[in-house]
C-alpha cells in the first residue's frame, strides 16, 4: 500500500505526520520526496548513506565541429543554449535533458554526458527503511530525483511518501499512482486557503484522501466547517501542544516522546484502510 | 535604484509571510511581490483589489492528432518523460513541453500548443501595490512565473517612483527560490530553531552564497529551543551572516491571521515591537 502525506502550505506538519505514521504501523517504509528540503531523516538516529547519484543526460558540444547554425538554440524550449557573437554558450542548470538538441544538430556536434542533479540516500532500520533525495544547491529541478525515489517503494510494505509542499509539478508527481493521500493543514486562514488548492488537485487526480488538522486549537473551526461542507473525511486532529513543538525542534518523533499519541496514528491508519 | 528584498526560509511555516506582511505595513514607498506562486498567501492579509490581470503561458504542451498518426513509435522512443505509452498514446499531464516528439514525428501528427499555466495580477492594497500570481495546479515552470512577478513589480516600482520591492519567497531551494533570489539586493532568512528549520536554513544560505547574494537572518520562535538558537547564532557568525533579531514564540501571529490583519496592525504588543525593530535593521542593511 502506498500513502502520500501532502500539504499545500509548507510547515504544516507534513513530515511529523509521515514520520509518526510510519513509526506507528507495522511493516512500513518512508520515502521523503521533499528533495528541496528533506527533513524526515532528522527523526531517525541512523545516518543516511548515499545509495546513488541522480543525473540527467546533458549535451556536450564539440565546438570544432559546430557550425554555429543556431538550430539547437532555436529548438531548446528551456533557453539552455545561446549563441553570443561567435560563441556557443550552454547553461547546464536550465537544461532538462530532453535530448532534442542532439537530434536536431545537422553536423553531429553534440554528444551526451551525465549532469548530476542530486543524490538518493538510505537510512532508518531494516524494519523501517528511510529513503530520501536531495537536490544539489543551485539546481532548479527536482522531478528526476522524485521519479527515481518512487522506484524504491517496496510492494510488500506500506510505503509512506512525504511530499514536497505546494501544488506544482513535483508535489503532484507524488500524489499520483498512490492508494491514499493525507492532506495536512492548520486551522487558520492560510491553512484553509492552501488546503482548498490541494483538494482541487487531488480531486482531479482521483486519489482517495482525507484531512489531518495539525495544531488544533491555535485557530478556529473554519477547516472543520469546510470539510463538512465538502464531505471530506477528517482523519485526525493533533492538538497545539508546545511539548510537541519542543520534541519536534530536537528531532524526537512525537510517538517516541509522547507515546500516548501512538493510538491516534494507529486509528488514523485503520480509517485509511477502510477507505481504500 | 530600486532595491529588492527577498524574505525566505527554506522550510515552510517559519513565519515568513507573517513577517513579510508586517514589513509591508511598516515600509514606505514600496511595492510588494508574492513569489510563493504555488501557495500564495499574502493576499489573505492584504486584501488586494485587482487592477490588472495577465495570463501566464509557461511551456507549450504536446497535442497529438490520431488521424494523422501512422504508429511509427518514434514519439514513444524519444520522449524522456514517459508521456507516451508503448502504443503511442499521449498522456498530456506528463508532458514537460520539450517538443522532441514534434521534432521526430515523420508525419507532423504532433503540434506543440500554448496553454494557460497561471495568471499574474497587479493590485492595490492599503499598503501600496502588490504583484501576485496563481500557478495552475500541476504546472511546471513556476520559476518563470516568479520571474514574471518580479518583472512586473519592478515595472510598477519604476512607474510609481517606489524604491523598495518586498518579495515573499517560496519554500525549498529549487527553480522558484532561485528565481525569487537571483539578483536581489538582500535576502532575509527566517530560521526556526528546530533541527529541520536549521537544516533547511543552511541549505538556503548555501543557495544565497552560490548566487552571491548578501544575506542576513532572523530567528523566529527562538525560545522553543534555546540550544538550537545558540547553534544558529554560532553558525551565522561563522558564515558572516548578521542576525538582525530574535522573535519569541507568540500566538498573536495566529490571532492576527484569524482576523486577516498583519501583526503590526493587530497589536502593539511585544511581537509587533520586535518585528518593528527588525524592520529598522533590515532597512539599514538594504
Ligand atoms: S537536452 Fe533539451 S533541454 Fe537540454 S539543452 Fe538540449 S534541447 Fe535544451
Ligand atoms: S545545432 Fe549543432 S551545429 Fe548548430 S549551433 Fe547547435 S551544436 Fe552547433
Ligand atoms: S513535448 Fe517532450 S515531454 Fe511532451 S510529450 Fe513530447 S517528447 Fe514528451
Ligand atoms: S511519431 Fe508521430 S506518427 Fe509516429 S507514433 Fe508518434 S505521433 Fe504517430
Give the mean pLDDT of chain B: 92
Oligomer: heterodimer
Strand order of the largest sheet of chain B: 3-6-7-2-8-1-9-10-11
Low-confidence stretches of chain B: none
- Tally of helical runs of chain B: 11
Q: Would you give the CATH topology of the largest domain in chain B?
A: Rossmann fold
Q: Tell me the domain tally of chain B.
A: 2
**Terminal Cα separation of chain A, in Å?**
10 Å
Broad CATH class of the largest domain in chain A: Alpha Beta
What is the helix/strand order of chain A?
A: EHEEHEEHEEHEHEHEHEHHH
Q: How many distinct helices of chain A? A: 10
The largest sheet of chain A is: 9 strands, mixed
Bound molecules: iron/sulfur cluster
Given the C-alpha coordinates, what overall shape of chain A results?
Answer: elongated
Radius of gyration of chain B: 22 Å
What does this structure look like?
The complex is a heterodimer of chains A (276) and B (286). By secondary structure, chain A is an alpha/beta fold. Chain A folds into two domains: 2-44 and 127-275, Rossmann fold (3-Layer(aba) Sandwich); 55-116, Alpha-Beta Plaits (2-Layer Sandwich), CATH 3.30.70. Chain A has ten helices and eleven strands. The model of chain A has no long low-confidence stretch (mean pLDDT 93). The model of chain B has no long low-confidence stretch (mean pLDDT 92). In chain B, the strands form two sheets. In chain B, strands 3-6-7-2-8-1-9-10-11 form a nine-stranded mixed β-sheet, with helices on both faces. With 286 residues, chain B is an alpha/beta fold. Chain B folds into two domains: 3-57 and 118-285, Rossmann fold (3-Layer(aba) Sandwich); 61-113, Alpha-Beta Plaits, CATH 3.30.70.20. The interface between A and B is large, with 58 and 61 residues. Residues 62, 79, 81, 83, 95-101 of chain B line the site of one iron/sulfur cluster.
